[in-house]
Every structure is written in C-alpha cells, then in structure tokens.
Amino acid sequence: MTYSSNESGVPQGRVLMINPPYVHQKDVDHADKSAQLPFGLLYAGELLEQRGAKVSYHDCQLERLVDRNEIDAYDNYGITVMGTQNIASANHVYKTLIDIGIKPEQIFFGGQGAEGLIDEATGDDKEFQMLFPGSNIVSRESLYTRNYWSTTIRLQLKKIPSEHKDIYFNNELVLAWSQGCLYGCNFCGAQIMQKERFYDVKENLKTYLEIARELDKKSLDFYVTALDFGQQALPHGNPGLLNAALGDVIMMSERYGIEVHNRALTRADSYLALVRDDALLKRIHDAGFYQFGIGADGASSVDVLRAMHKGDLDLKVHIMQAFEHAQANGFIPEILYVFGTENDTPETLFQTLQLCSELLKKFDKSIYRGFPAKDFIPGNKNWKRPEWKSSEAYKRLMSEAGNFEDLGFETLANTISHPNKKMRKEVNARAVEMSYVAHTLGRVQSFLTIPIMEKDGTELMSAGTFEIFREILKNYAPDIVPRLTLENLPDYRKEINLRVPKDK
Ligand code: B12
Ligand code: SF4
C-alpha cells in the first residue's frame, strides 16, 4: 500500500480536509445555498487531530478550490467520498490538486464511497490506485480509537467561518445516532452485517444546539444516521439503547428551548416491532421524529426479495401495515425503493410501479423516494463477483473515474449499471412513469438525473418514455425542454442535471 508520511496510514501535520462538490455541480463558481455540513469529514478531522494532525477545512459546495489562498501550504490533503458517485467528484478534486503541483502521496481519501476500493481481506488497494494513482486510502479501522463512538465535532465546528455555519444551520444537519445494520442485502453499500452501535447522541446534539443558540435559531432539522431506526426492537435487540437516545434528544431540546425535527430510515418489520410499545412511540414523537423512509426494495415480488437477501419475505404486507400505522400516528411514510436489480423482470418492475402507485394513492401523506438500482458498487456484496470484475462495464468504469457519476442512486439506468439494453429501457420506463406520478401529486423526494451516454438518449429510453420524462423536466428546465430530443440529450445533460434538485 502507498500509505505515505507515517506508518499508521493516516495523514499527519497540517492537513486540509476537502469536501468535493456535489457531483452535478462540479464547475459551479458560486456558493450553494443548499450546502449541507459535511459531517463525516469533520468527524474524521476530529479523529485525526486526536492523533496529532492540525486540520483545516475546504468545502467545494461553497468555494472553488482553485480560488483558495495558499492552497499549497499544507503537508497533506484529505478528501471525503461519501457515496459511490462521489468517486467522480473526488477525482475532480484530486486532478485539481495535482494540476497545482500537490504530490499524489500527499493526498488521502476516506469515506464510505471509497473504502470499498480496498480489498478487506488482503488490504490490496489495486482498484483504488487505478483511479487515484500514487495517493492513499485511509481504512475505516485506522481511525478507530477508544473514544471513537463518543467523539463530537465541537472543536472542528469552531474552524468553520460563521457565514458558512449560517448556511449549514439553515439546511438539514446530520445527527450522529448509530451505525451498522444486521442484514446483508446484496445491493447495499452501507455498513452491513454488523451490530448497530450508537454514537454519543447527547453530546453531538448539544454541540449543534450551542451553535444554534449563538445563531439565534429556533429549530434545527436533522437526518439521523441510523440505517434501520427500529433495529433494536427486533429479536435480540435492546430497545433500551434507543430509548436512552430518544430521552437525550427530548432533554437537550427542552434545555436549549430549540425544536428539533428528525427524519430517519427504517425497515418495515422493525418499525412495526418498535411502535408496539406505546411509551416508546410517544417518545419518538416527543423527540421530534416526523418522517420515516421505510425500505420497500423488492416488496412487490417474493422472488426478488429472496434473491436480494432482504430478510423479510412478507415485506409487502409489512409495508402496508407500517404505512397504515405511520400515517395514522402523524409520521410521513416515505417509500424508499431501490428497483431494477438484476433479479427484476419486466413483470416485477411493473408490479413495483403498481405497488408504489397504490401506496401513494392510499396514503395521502406518503412521499416517493425511488431509485433505479446500481447493482455493483464498491463495497457491496455484488462488487466482489468475478464475472463483474471481468465484464466490459467494469472495465469502462475503472478506465475513467468520471464514469462513477453513472452509479449515483438518482441516475437513470445506463450502459454501465444496466448493460442489457432491453432491461435498461424497462427500468427507466418504470422509473420515469413512477416519478411522473409522484411529481403530479407533489409528493416526490427523489429526482432522476441523466447519465453519461455512449451514443445518445436512444440507448436509455423509448420515445414514449422520453415524452413523459420531458413532462417531468418541465418542472426544472422549462426553457430547455422544447429543444430537447433523444438525439441531443448528451448536449444538455450537464445543464439539466445542474437544475434537477440535489439528491438528499
Ligand atoms: C447522512 C447521510 C446523507 C446525507 C449527507 C449530509 C452530509 N452532508 O453529510 C444526505 C441525505 C445528503 C446523503 C446523500 C447521499 N448519500 Co448518504 N448517507 C448518510 C448516512 C445516513 C450517514 C452518513 C454519516 O454522516 N455517517 C456518520 C459519519 C461519522 O460516518 P462516515 O460518513 O462514514 O465517515 C467516517 C469514515 O467514512 C471516515 N471518513 C469520511 N470522510 C473521510 C475523509 C478522510 C480524508 C478520512 C481520512 C476519513 C474519512 O471517517 C468518518 C469517521 O469514521 C449514511 C448511512 C450511514 N449510516 O452511514 C448514508 C450513505 C453514506 N449515503 C450513501 C449515498 C450513496 C449517498 C449519495 C451519494 C446517494 C447518491 N445520490 O448516489 C448522496 C450524495 C448526494 C450529495 N448531495 O452529495 C450511501 C453510501 C453507500 C456507498 N458505499 O456508496 C450510504 C451508506 C447510505 C446507504 N444505505 O447506502 N447522505
Ligand atoms: S438495505 Fe437496509 S436492511 Fe438491507 S442491509 Fe442495507 S441498511 Fe440493512
């Protein structure tokens, strides 16, 4: 491995920690008012300082890297890669640094989108080196300390200019809640097949509330990090851990007189187990939870559920019950649905469309958040399959880091994610139809972007699907739509993606 500068494999000395731009906003030269605090980057920065580094920050959402003074004044540079698509924007930052004379060995990458580029078993970083030659990848383990779970970003936030804090605190923040999910769905790139562990929710929330008070804010919005909010309510879990975290939120919010609004992700079965306890349900409300993204992946077909190892063959029934309960109890039920995996067929895709439409119709508070699956992403179970590693799609992906943009959750199925043309068009047909229904109802939280194409839009969708897609795009790019054809789609790709709401 090319861990330079010190034996532990983590950057030392003066380190500039960089948050890359949102993948569809790579060349934007003005501050993005919807910029979110890069929580993982600050958490990593705190852990590095505990090991002796002196950390500063740069957020490309707010300022272009090339406009920063004394950019070459640091010993080392850290770049965060939050999800797979950000390999593309991280590479943009890497190239910028190399262009201004920074040596690759001074550059360190970390984050869940990049960690999967190292082979866990052997530590081999060959794949990483193909994309970021000469630089370093920091493994998750090398940042673990005895205090890992009780760390806060208090000291790191002090380094953020107040005009940037103002922007971050007007937008949704990340609340360190827990990490890990016991299940092992094969398309999932999260921290799977591990026991859920809790962060120090109280201290992390307190850190935010102190700043909110300084900024005179009356409320804060949070996305909590739990992968499955109800996991402790499943057999062998310990609901006491969740109960304690909820108690901390209620207490801190009252103490500071600042309202907190939280959204979280959950499995349907764990949600149902959790809300059986009336006292716990009341605390969830009191702690400001207002929306649950309920994982519906594969729900329309038992065969698909089985193939993706979802761990709940009755998901369809559980989804209905969970939505029923959530809506009746004042929570927004969110249809979190990854569809178009290799196990889907035209029939199951059609059933998915029917199920999502039924949920939207039946539950008038529900909201749609559906994504065309990306079966193979670094770190998930599929990525390790030999037939993937020898495929043309893999070779194309690895030949140019920019192609990772096509593995974004929100990106339409494309020649890398769905090499089979017929299925690619089927997936996009259902994705566009479903998105159109949700747009029409005004209950949509996922927005489709246009992938990089080999030829033109005819490889992505039929003329019929395109007509519906144009209707959706009228919401964001009404001036471009009249000129848009399947043939000229590549010419307008970047401009349209820039206007489509950011994936949150
Ligand atoms: C909060 C969150 C969001 C928020 C982020 C807000 C923000 N600015 O931080 C929102 C909702 C915007 C979001 C968006 C996306 N997300 Co998200 N998100 C999460 C979530 C729930 C928590 C992340 C978190 O903060 N964890 C806590 C911190 C402490 O952990 P961490 O981020 O892993 O950081 C640690 C290490 O990775 C490392 N590290 C991180 N950066 C660096 C940098 C350096 C230099 C070093 C040395 C170390 C290091 O140190 C940290 C401490 O150990 C996770 C799920 C989860 N439970 O992790 C998904 C997750 C990370 N997201 C994911 C994805 C894919 C995305 C998207 C890229 C989706 C897409 N469109 O493709 C988008 C990106 C859109 C965008 N705007 O850029 C995936 C990543 C999967 C993968 N392997 O690729 C996850 C795991 C969700 C999932 N179930 O699949 N997300
Ligand atoms: S999709 Fe959800 S349930 Fe499945 S492994 Fe990932 S986090 Fe766990």
Key terms:
Transcription Regulator spoIIAA; Rossmann fold; 18 helices; about 500 residues; five-stranded parallel sheet; binds iron/sulfur cluster
Q: Could you please describe the fold and organization of this structure?
A:
The protein is an alpha/beta fold and 504 residues long. Among the domains are: 14-143, Rossmann fold, CATH 3.40.50.280; 172-295, Transcription Regulator spoIIAA (2-Layer Sandwich), CATH 3.30.750. It has helices spanning 39-50, 86-99, 112-115, 126-131, 154-157, 162-170, 201-214, 239-256, 268-274, 278-286, 302-307, 315-328, 346-362, 386-389, 392-399, 421-441, 463-473, 489-499; strands at residues 14-19, 54-59, 76-80, 107-110, 136-137, 173-175, 178-179, 197-198, 219-224, 259-267, 289-295, 332-339, 367-372. Strands 6-9-10-11-12-13 form a 6-stranded parallel beta sheet. Helix 2 (86-99) links the parallel strand 3 and strand 4 (107-110). Helix 13 packs parallel to helix 16 (421-441). The longest helix has 21 residues, at 421-441. The radius of gyration is 22 Å and the shape is globular. The protein starts with 13 loop residues before the first strand and ends in a 5-residue tail after the last helix. Bound molecules: cobalamin and iron/sulfur cluster (SF4). Cobalamin binds next to helix 1, strand 3, strand 4 and helix 3.
Question: Topology, pairings included?
Answer:
Elements: E1 14-19, H1 39-50, E2 54-59, E3 76-80, H2 86-99, E4 107-110, H3 112-115, H4 126-131, E5 136-137, H5 154-157, H6 162-170, E6 173-175, E7 178-179, E8 197-198, H7 201-214, E9 219-224, H8 239-256, E10 259-267, H9 268-274, H10 278-286, E11 289-295, H11 302-307, H12 315-328, E12 332-339, H13 346-362, E13 367-372, H14 386-389, H15 392-399, H16 421-441, H17 463-473, H18 489-499
Parallel strand pairs: 1-2, 1-3, 3-4, 4-5, 6-9, 9-10, 10-11, 11-12, 12-13
Antiparallel strand pairs: 7-8
Helix pairs in contact: 7-8, 8-10, 9-12, 13-16, 16-17
The chain binds cobalamin (B12) and iron/sulfur cluster.
Iron/sulfur cluster (SF4) binds next to loops.
